[in-house]
Specification:
The structure holds 2 protein chains of 2 kinds.
Chain A (H helix, E strand, L loop, with lengths): L3 H14 L8 H27 L14 H12 L2 H11 L6 H25 L25 H34 L2 H10 L7 H34 L11 H27 L8 H32 L2 H13 L1 H18 L3 H4 L2 H28 L14 H24 L5 H13 L1 E3 L2 E3 L7
Helix pairs in contact in A: 2-15, 3-5, 3-9, 3-14, 4-5, 4-8, 4-9, 5-6, 5-15, 6-7, 6-8, 8-9, 9-10, 9-14, 10-12, 11-14, 12-14
Chain B lengths: L9 E6 L8 H9 L7 H5 L8 E7 L6 E7 L9 H4 L5 E3 L5 E3 L9 H5 L6 E2 L26 E2 L5 H13 L12 H5 L5 E5 L6 H6 L4 E2 L11 E4 L9
Parallel strand pairs in B: 1-10
Antiparallel strand pairs in B: 1-8, 2-3, 4-5, 6-7, 9-10
Classes of the chains: A mainly alpha, B alpha+beta.
């Protein structure tokens, strides 16, 4: 079935899509160096915190949790980009997902890894973080499995392992392509990583069954991870946190920031790798519709939460919202603009959904607003808890801000390194689509896709 | 959650009508429990480490204004919200109804402090410091806590231990009023009474049955062991 012309095409496509792995230019080194410097500064700030004490942060009584927990929730939310979006798109057979698949999955792995650092940074005595692990020890103690922090540790580790497997399985055929295109010691390394992939019919069969299965399995994991993060707050007695709506509300929040991040990623990848023919306006239109839907859902959840609290007007709970609007009014405004007003009004228009600059602005604004949303969940509730005598507020210190900025730099650094050493475009997936299109047949108004695979 | 294998259930009664807000309990507690001295800006930033504090509330508008004092310390809840959330069992329930804090286990997640409705848990933001010569008066019975761990009122557990040891040496039962935390011992108007709630004839049990009794945030179901008295009446046996 495969013609000579097609095979030539495949070679050209391999070369084109592996261009991201060509030896780095000075620009790449400069970018990596700048990111590395920011990470190093964050490490310095962390050293200051460890050697001096948590007092160098803005944490106080009553606000015992601050930027670290906020960043943790933010990064866990962002990690819902890849697995959720790519798994959903895979299961719903949206074939335009293919070029962004790898990028989104890598985003998941790196953001959940960055997220996993924050609970450790946040500990008062980081050097004994392993007390949280269930291992046989001289203290004769297991960790307390009733604690939501233990649920967290299990959920985050499951998600890191699950999403890494998800990414890695998808990488296998592409690693084989890289192996075949490289030489010397590189070839040896990629040969090990490709785990003997030969592209036989049997391997493909196992591969496609495995990836569909993983896509099904990773969705409940993703939902449970963010529910558990929500329960860190919801199971407490803290007014404003103790709310049954939190788990689904957090999951929707996570999907909102995940979808927005995937759109941002699509724009960047399209620009960097000149994928105009793969990522067409209609794909952005679809993703923007999805973002519109989740923004509507998010707004609905937020409204339900505030409306019921406002109507009941229990002083202890309403105090949180009145404090929030007086002390953090500007942040509240940015959150409402970024999560509700701008995306919901903007994305109703087809021109906006198909305009890349507009989408870039909206998706970045959504993620900024989602960061603020987490701040407004964590801080006001703790500031004005049950006892008015020790009401307080919270402003992050330079140490916390440095570590937060470093976490973004670390994420981008890991991402840049990944894109240099691994195929960031899902080569085989894109080629499969090309070949599907070649072999597809017009039948009335529908186009029947026929799968042709090279042996 | 409150399976108690001991004969004791320690409890405290605080008579708000007697409290003058003098703050002697705060000072006594600081000296007894090796609590570091906080600087002025540390206190302003919410970094003070007092295990007991006098909350002062103003009632009415000037000039018809009245101060109300509420001594606040760990309530040693029978169903304590701080306990289940601790991932390392640093906050645990002791057989005598005390809410214990094991400093060596604490990794400093500060979750317990968030979940405490009374906000009585304090965190060591820095290593402890005492201006000279106060470092000379540290009690050898009490651990000095390092940075990064949580702490809070222990009902002077070291005094309880001492009292029980003394009683068992002398082969007798612990007497009512024999064990007294520093705050109760020092309180000039004797507003703080400490004792065994399991003994129906102890002074603390009798006062705890007073019609003037109430506990803080009883609607939260935390079952505190600290009982406050308020609202006049003459049933204080003095």
């Amino acid at each position: 079935m495969t013609t000579r012309a097609n095979r030539y095409d495949a070679v050209r496509m391999n070369r084109e899509m592996l261009s991201s792995m060509s030896p780095p230019t000075w620009r790449w080194y400069l970018l990596a160096a700048v990111l590395g410097a920011v990470v190093a500064f964050g490490l310095y700030a962390f050293t200051v915190q460890v050697t001096t004490g948590m007092g160098v942060t803005g944490i106080n009584r009553p606000v015992m949790w601050g930027i670290y927990i906020i960043s943790f929730v933010f990064w866990v939310g962002l990690s819902h980009s890849g697995t959720m979006v790519s798994a959903i798109l895979r299961l719903s057979k949206a074939s335009w997902r293919r070029p962004i698949l790898r990028g989104a999955e890598a985003m998941t792995v790196f953001s959940i890894s960055v997220a996993g650092l924050f609970p450790l940074i946040h500990l008062g005595r980081n050097w004994i973080f392993y007390y949280l692990l269930p291992y046989p020890n001289q203290r004769g103690l297991w960790p307390n499995f009733r604690s939501p922090l233990l649920f967290d540790m299990v959920a985050i580790n499951t998600y890191i392992i699950g999403s890494t497997i998800f990414l890695y399985i998808g990488l296998l055929p592409d690693l084989a392509v890289v192996r075949d295109c490289s030489s010397g010691w590189k070839k040896k390394i990629y040969a090990i990583l490709a785990m003997g992939w030969r592209g036989s019919a049997e391997q493909w069969q196992v591969f496609s069954r495995g990836s569909t299965l993983l896509a099904c399995l990773i969705i409940p994991v993703a939902v449970s991870v963010h529910s558990i993060v929500a329960w860190d707050f919801a199971v407490t007695l803290v007014p404003g946190w103790h709310s049954t709506i939190f788990a689904p509300y957090f999951v929707i929040g996570a999907i909102t920031s995940g979808v927005a991040a995937v759109i941002t990623l699509m724009i960047v990848i399209r620009k960097l790798f000149k994928l105009e023919e793969f990522l067409q306006p209609v794909h952005f239109d679809n993703m923007a519709k999805l973002l519109l839907a989740v923004c509507l859902l998010w707004s609905y959840f937020y409204f339900s939460e505030v409306f019921t609290t406002w109507y009941a007007h229990k002083p202890i709970e309403w105090e949180i919202f009145s404090f929030m609007s007086s002390r953090y009014g500007i942040m509240l405004l940015i959150m409402m603009l970024g999560n509700t007003i701008v995306p919901i009004i903007g994305l109703c228009f087809r021109q906006v959904r198909r305009s890349l600059p507009a989408l870039l602005v909206i998706t970045l604004l959504v993620n900024l607003a989602m960061f603020i949303e987490r701040f407004l969940i964590v801080v006001p509730s703790l500031s004005h808890k049950n006892i008015p005598f020790i009401w307080g507020s919270y402003t992050p210190s330079w140490v916390e801000l440095a570590i937060m900025v470093a976490s973004f730099a670390l994420f981008f650094l890991l991402y840049t390194l990944f894109a240099k050493f691994f195929p960031i475009l899902a080569i085989t997936d894109v080629r499969e689509q090309e070949e599907v299109l070649l072999g597809s047949q017009q039948n009335g108004r529908t186009r029947l896709e026929t799968l042709v695979k090279e042996e | 959650m409150n399976i108690e294998t001991s004969e004791f259930h320690w409890g405290m009664v605080i008579d708000l009508d007697r409290c003058t807000g003098c703050g002697a309990c705060v000072t006594a507690c600081q000296a007894e429990n090796n609590i570091p001295i906080s600087e002025q800006d540390g206190i302003a930033n919410g970094r003070n480490l007092h295990w007991i504090r006098i909350e002062r509330y103003w009632e009415g508008e000037f000039p018809h204004v009245r101060a109300r004092f509420l001594p606040m310390l760990c309530q040693h809840c029978d169903d304590a919200p701080c306990e289940p959330v601790c991932p390392v069992y640093a906050s645990y329930h002791n057989p005598e109804g005390l809410n214990g804090q094991v400093y060596n286990r604490c990794v400093g997640t500060r979750y317990c402090a968030n979940n405490c409705p009374y906000a009585v848990r304090v965190f060591n933001f820095f290593n402890p410091k005492w201006p000279k010569p106060l470092e000379q008066q540290l009690s050898p019975d009490v651990t000095v806590r390092s940075r990064g761990v949580m702490e809070k009122c222990s009902f002077c557990i070291q005094r309880i231990r001492r009292g029980k040891e003394q009683a068992s040496l002398e082969n007798r039962k612990l007497l009512d009023g024999e064990v007294m935390p520093a705050c109760a011992q020092t309180c000039p108007p004797q507003a703080i009474i400490f004792g065994d709630l399991n003994d129906p004839d102890s002074r603390v049990s009798k006062l705890a049955r007073s019609p003037r009794r109430f506990r803080l945030f009883e609607d939260l179901g935390t079952e505190p062991s600290v009982i406050y008295l308020k609202g006049g009446g003459h049933d204080h046996p003095g």
